[in-house]
Amino acid sequence: MTPTIYYHCPCLSTDSIPPPPNSPSSSYSFHPLHELFFFSGYHCPNCLFEVPSASVRAEKNRCARNCFMCPNCRNTLSVVPSDPPDADDLRSLASNMSTVGGPPFFLYCNYCRWDSTEVDITFEKPTGLAAQLQKFEDAAPESLEFERLKEHFEPFLRASSSSGLSGHLQAAHSHTTHINPITAAASSALAREISGVAKYTPAPRGRRDKGSRDEISEYRSRVEVAGTKDASNVDFMRRLEDVSQVAALAQRWTNSWTMTLHSSDLRPLRIPLHSKKTKRCPTCRHILIKPEQKAHHDSARQHGAGNRQAAVEDTSGASGLHAGGTYPFQLALTNPLYDPIQVRLAVQRQIPPPSSSAPDGSPEKARRPPFAVSLPQSAFPVAAFAEAWEYEDDEDMFGGGDDELDWIGNGKTIGVLERRANVTVVGGEVVIGRDAKGPVKFNMLVSYTYRSDDPLGDEDVRTTPSRKDKVPDMKTFTFYTVVDLGDEIIPRFS
Amino acid sequence: MPPIRDKFAIHSKAVVCQDVELKGDITIGSGTILHPKATIFAIAGPIVIGANCIIEEAAIIVNRRKEVMRIGDDNLFEIGCRVESPSVGNFNTVSTRARVHHTVRISSYCFVGAGCLVVPTDDEVLDEYTVIYGPSAERRVWSGRGRVQETDLRRKHAEYLRETLPKFNRLRRGEGHGYGA
To answer: DSSP of A57-78, one letter per residue?
Structure first.
């Protein structure tokens, strides 16, 4: 079993001190790092263009530039010119004929060689494709339906948003007598979905004044979709000769409207946007994890105050953890900040649960913790994060020798083992008691300190001596983690 | 099994790097480029490669049948691919790490995508303009649109390599340096 590290976020639990890790309910207090993310921004996975949140809605969550998805293999399409005319005779290429293609341009998939001329989409210019396709997109059935829905609900949305503010404040006191139709619709939909949830009715306070409950008129969709197309689909399937004529589910389900089953009808789609995630501390609103400023394929760097990745490597050997043994382990701490930090680790003292199975045993035995963990006691530094190209030699990046080791305890196992780039590996030791059982898990308090300049500190203080001196202060942050060394203790039968 | 007798007939205009492993009866046409670390094994039968082909690094072309394996002109065998097909036409592309079994005969203008395994159990012939793509080696037929630009690109690719490769790699000289004007 691989060792893991989970983090305790005080914002998400009521107590700032985490519960003992071995109790069954405490798994809810600890999270792997990737679960602590919230959403931040949108970008196109193809052109990596950051789309501001305002235009995301306008563009219906798709890339507004020239990024299209092949309907056949779902790769990106590229815009290519057509072949020059009368070049069918390949021998004429030997003479100096230009083979530069010209308009009309079309979309071409490099991967499966599908091209958009199969659905009759060609362009006169290779740029601004979205604009050129705008007419077709606006005439698509889903857009028209959506427009109709928006028109239908617009008056009620306006009414609810204007009363929305006051309604929100009053909701806590349940003084609301005015249910706007949006809330009514939402609550009845919820009641329909989940049995047992009653429809929301405000506390009746006599007659509702002003009779302010609006009724939404019945909505009639533009197109009756009630199964008229199925007959032709069934017919098509009956006469099928080649399975590739049918559009596969994976090719159809990104579309918001039912599509025909014919694979020849598949059209290129604008690429849907991906979101980036960040985490903001709910208490102090400080950004803890911030994605890269420019969308880099799938990278989110931890930035600012907050969590750090700590990877645990278990070096106890393949045989597992035996009761009564002593095992070393290593913790690799990675520093995402641009400043070097000093880290201090501490093991949270555990009070083991009273053992009920030893009524006549000595009380000290019941209270002896099943294992003892030794970690380096003093603070150790972890270097700042720097991009790979900033290191002049590979040695700096991949770690030099063991200078400044901290010799505590049994020789070389506890203390700073290695320091490379922005990662420091420290060793610890766990001594397992003779009667210990269960997985080896302990809470570890990590606190780190760094000297930070003022966030505006990029300015050159020398040239503006009139400014007040910004004293860089030391910031300290602490968080709890639970370290799980993975293996269950193998009991000793003696 | 009789020992493999090497017999190379390499055109003088072909560019064959020194690090290429050649075994058996091999004929290489004019303008063909063999990158270093390419491997051509004519184990059981001879291999004849046409003109202006490009065989990249770690590509393996093997003939384990007694019949002649004929490869046409202007083909591109990308890095790491393995081709055992007894007959290959013109202007094909076998992409990186693809494998083509000895049961398949490739005609012309085909494209085997990266990593695709074309390994049918029965003999078959790939029609012209077949495209094989995807992890499960799905197929479809290319419309042929854009082939003029692609053939032009292939020629330019080969021409560039013919000029540049000899500057940075040692070329194979010596025995079997055969024919060609």
So the answer is: HHTTTB-SSS-EE-TTT--BEE
Question: How far is the alpha carbon of B105 from chain A, nearest alpha carbon, in Å?
Answer: 20
**Scanning every residue of chain A, which has its alpha carbon at the shortest distance from the alpha carbon of B141?**
A113
Token pair 């017999």 in the structure block, residue: B7
- Tens digits of per-residue pLDDT, B79-127? 999 999 999 999 999 999 999 999 999 999 999 999 999 999 999 999 9
**Separation between Cα atoms, residue B128 and residue B154, nearest integer Å:** 17
Return the number of CB contacts < 8 Å for A and B: 52
Contacts of B152 in chain A (CB under 8 A): 93, 99
ipTM of the complex: 0.78
Find residue B48's DSSP bridge partners: B27, B70
Distance CA B95, CA B111 (A): 8
**How near does any CA of chain B get to the CA of A68, in Å?**
18
Look at A112 and B134 and tell me if their CB atoms are within 8 Å.
Answer: yes
* CA triple A399-A404-A405, angle to 5 deg: 90
Give the residue from chain A lying closest to B129, CA to CA. A113
Q: Spell out a b/e string for A49-72, using b for 16 or more CB atoms within 10 Å of the CB, else e.
A: bebeeeebeebeebbbbbbbbbbb
Residue with structure tokens 């959403």?
A: A39
Q: Are A429 and A328 in contact (CB under 8 A)?
A: yes
Q: Is the separation of the CB atoms in A384 and A436 below 8 Å?
A: no
Residue A111: its chain B contacts at CB < 8 A? Answer: 113, 133
Q: What's the DSSP call for residue B94?
A: E
Give the chain B residue whose CA is nearest to the CA of A114: B142
Question: With an 8 Å Cβ cutoff, are B148 and A83 in contact?
Answer: yes
Spatial CA neighbour of A376 closest among A333, A428, A420: A428
Q: Give the three-class secondary structure for A231.
A: helix
pLDDT in tens, B32-81: 999 999 999 999 999 999 999 999 999 999 999 999 999 999 999 999 99
At B83 the three-state DSSP class reads strand
Evaluate whether A70 touches A268 at the Cβ level (below 8 Å): yes
For residues A482 and A442, is the Cβ–Cβ distance under 8 A?
A: yes
A118 and B CB contact within 8 Å: yes
3 state SS of A162? helix
Please check whether residue A213 touches B, CB under 8 A: no
Contact A113 B140 (CB under 8 A): yes
Amino acid identity of A385? F
Q: Do B145 and A117 count as a contact with CB atoms less than 8 A apart?
A: yes
Stated as kind and residue range, the H or E segment containing A425 is: strand A423-432
Rounded to the nearest 10 degrees, how much is the dihedral formed by the CA atoms of A480, A485, A486, A488? Answer: -110
Q: What is the pLDDT of residues A385-420, one digit of tens each?
A: 777 777 666 555 554 444 444 444 445 667 788 888
Report CA A52 to chain centroid distance, whole Å: 18
Q: How far apart are CA A203 and CA A183, in angstroms?
A: 15
Report the gap between the CA of A440 and the closest CA in chain B (Å): 42
Distance of alpha carbon B42 from alpha carbon B21, whole angstroms = 11
To the nearest whole Å, the CA of A105 is away from the closest chain B CA by 11
